[in-house]
Amino acid sequence: MKIILNTIGVLAVILGVLGIFLPLLPTTPFLLLASACFARASPRLHNWLQTNRVFGKYLRDYENGRGIPLRGKIWVLIFMWGSMSYSIWRTDHLWVRLLVVLIGAGVTIYLTRFVPTMRIEKK
Fold it and tell me: Which sequence ranges are marked TM in the entry (predicted)?
């Protein structure tokens, strides 16, 4: 079972990293999946993921229930809708446009309604 979980975790990390650059591939769900798999199968890989300098802090905050900072949510939505708008503009298929809009709307609703906004304490 550990081999299967580690394999799924590695594939999820690869897809998550690709999602940083590809507009329709989500990053966060894949990284959360990888973290869940690694937490059960490999403490070393789970620690590596949570201490990663690029996305480790955000992953730790999300997993600990602290949420995402407001500034991060705003940037995610700007970049997501910007890249999705480009994808919508570049396709001639109505069903693809509708699918992209539905995915974007779902992610927006999830991010704004269900993910807590982290309060940053001023020092």
Answer: 7-24, 95-115
